[in-house]
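dude i think i finally got it to work??
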Amino acid sequence: MFTLALVAQKGGVGKSTLAVHLATAGAESGKRVLVMDLDPQGSAMEWANRRGDKAPDVMAAHPATISKEIERARAEGYDLIVIDTAPHADHVALQAARASDLVLIPCRPATFEIAAISATLDLCKLANKQALVVVNAAPVRSRVVTEAIEAIQDKGGTVSPVVIHQRVAFQHCLIDGRTAAEFEPSGSAATEISELLAFVRTGKHVNRIASKPAAKNAEVV
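look at this
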């Protein structure tokens, strides 16, 4: 079983959207997947209520019992757990990071968002967990993406080679509990999520420290 925590000090970076998309992509690949929603706002839970009984499974979780819930999920045969946290690098986020195998840090390619990842990176060091920064909601075909990757690396962050771009499908699909792949199966949004999940699941992130090239799907001009 693999446990993935999405943690970010800054709100509005698309953490819950990324969490439910990665979880659903995992379920579509034949894995049994559970989303644990630690965010008091309950965005993942609201999405699940609109989705109905389709996979993945989603549950509200409490940081005090997260380790027990993970062990229970392991016993029940889950292959992947995705933990969605509140937008704060606090005790709850620390508990989620400690309980995970890998921490994903979504980050929009903007000044304030990049500045805020230092606290999250420090939290991951405190938890003694590897962190992978995902450039999220990036503009298509812009040098801003390359500049953001360089700035994140300058802060000591390891950046995913897969960039998630701002796509209309990500906005429209959530309204009725779908994902971008279900809204537009052959679209770029679906492809990017699949590529990110594949990169995380293959374990290539373990030895991948990019030397400041543009990410593989950065679409830079």
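The beta strands are 2-6, 33-37, 57-60, 80-84, 102-107, 131-135.
im so relieved honestly
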